[in-house]
Amino acid sequence: MIKRAAHLLSIVLVLLLAACSSGNDNNTAVSSKGGVSNTGIAPKEEITIKATNYSFDQKEYHLKKGVPVKIIFENESGNHGILVPELNLQLNSEHASEVIIPEEAGTFKMTCAVMCGSGHSGMVANVIVE
């Protein structure tokens, strides 16, 4: 009886470890296949958005309408993310890049997507699609 319980416990632990350590990293939208995203879009441009405590590295980021761009998010200090609802863009330290195609021209407000402390509400920048 004890052997059966130990055997069953061993199987459960192996299954649990296998589920927790699956090596398939699908957190980025761009695969290793020549920079083509999971949606099959190859970016023509690339921008990096860096976040530090309560600010982004630029006040404005410029994109071209209809041009696929790979957005890369780097968290330099603190715990932050980015959110631009109009572009269907949300990145953080777990999902740090995505290829998008801006379809509408305009100025869109980018905010921090992770509650990061007292300066969170002032952590904004503009994404300008021309």
Structure description:
This protein is an alpha/beta fold and 130 residues long. The protein contains one helix and nine strands; from the N terminus they run αβββββββββ. The protein has one helix at 2-20; strands at 45-52, 55-56, 60-63, 69-75, 81-84, 89-92, 97-100, 106-111, 124-129. A four-stranded mixed β-sheet has the order 2-1-4-7, with no helix packed on it. The longest helix is centred in the N-terminal third of the chain and has 19 residues, at 2-20.
What's the structural blueprint in terms of helices and strands?
Elements: H1 2-20, E1 45-52, E2 55-56, E3 60-63, E4 69-75, E5 81-84, E6 89-92, E7 97-100, E8 106-111, E9 124-129
Parallel strand pairs: 1-4, 3-9
Antiparallel strand pairs: 1-2, 4-7, 5-6, 8-9
Total of DSSP H or I helical runs spanning 4+ residues: 1
Largest sheet features: 4 strands, mixed
Any low-confidence stretches, pLDDT <50, length ≥5? 20-36
Question: Helicity level, as a percent range?
Answer: 10-25%
The pLDDT mean sits at 80
The proportion of strand residues reads: 25-35%
* SS content category: alpha/beta
Q: Which value, in Å, is the CA radius of gyration? A: 20 Å
Q: Total strand count, please?
A: 9
Q: Name the helix and strand elements from N-terminus to C-terminus, one letter apiece.
A: HEEEEEEEEE
Shape: elongated
Q: Tell me the span between the first and last alpha carbons.
A: 71 Å
Record the strand order, biggest sheet.
Answer: 2-1-4-7
